Amino acid sequence: MAQWSIDSVPDQTGRVAVVTGANSGLGLETALGLAQRGAQVILACRDQAKTEAAIARIRGRHPAARVEFMALDLADLASVAGFAGQVMGRLERLDLLINNAGVMALPLRRTKDGFEMQVGTNHLGHFALTGRLLPLVQKTGGSRIVTVASLAHRRGRIDLDDLNWERRPYSKWDAYGQAKLANLVFALELHRRLAASGSKTISTAAHPGFAATNLLTAGPIMEKSAIAKAVMSLSGALLAQSSAKGAIPTLHAAMTPGIAGGSYWGPDGPFEMWGGAPAPAVALKKAQSEKTGAGLWALSEKLTGVSYLS
Predict the structure, then answer these.
(1) DSSP assignment of 150-171, as one string?
(2) Which domain range does residue 183 map to?
(3) Which residue among 39, 42, 121, 141 is least enclosed by CB atoms within 10 Å?
(4) Which of 170, 176, 264, 308 is the catalytic position?
(5) pLDDT in tens, 195-236
(6) What is the pTM of this model?
(7) Is 170 a catalytic residue?
(8) Is residue 54, in this structure, part of any structural domain at all?
């Protein structure tokens, strides 16, 4: 795709979007882009103060923007259920669900439900959220679900016997790779199940390449090694593209007409790391495995207690 501009996509007036983790980084840029094109955007986040600041920034750019905060903690299934209940009770349509929020390379921590924090937040929380909101999404014509994955899926390995790192020696980077691989496996399995059910809703995925997000900023802080901190900080400063550019593949997947279900989008530059335009991204075979997709889906239903498209 030679060029891409936010102004080239259709007007989104009348459409409603939920963007998780929209108070900073990629999520904020995604919410900003959707609001710019006229969509009503719900910023689904944990921190109200940070989200109100993000809303002020959006309205500073687009005074007529229809944006609002709704509390959501993906690391707490009760919060997911409460958020979904509010959305289902208030809204008559939901055109776009952008599963964007995530955490990266954390020391071993657990969610309120006992899941390893990275797979619990990045995947299981979004799995439950999608299932609870799906009836509203499916009754909305032209609806899409976009799940934000990562180049880190390439180093990931999904262990269905120990998804939550209860028996394996913990590695925060391997756990991050597993969580981001799970995001992509989920998006593709969701596409297969939607298509098999005859649903008109489509599931797509996108990744930002190497972008200067809040996760990249936080990464060095959590490193114990001074050398690792320095290397990560320097690489982020010198090599990473902006969050605005990193959000382009997500915005493309959400708003460009004719997007195919099951497609995966990233930057158009070398190694999918940088670029100003979206392009088809490479999903490794392990992400496309129907066996892995079915296994992860069944386990996710069991762990979250949320079943759909079975």
Answers:
(1) -GGGGG----TTSTT-SSSPP-
(2) 7-301
(3) 141
(4) 176
(5) 999 999 999 999 999 877 655 444 444 555 544 444 444 444
(6) 0.92
(7) no
(8) yes
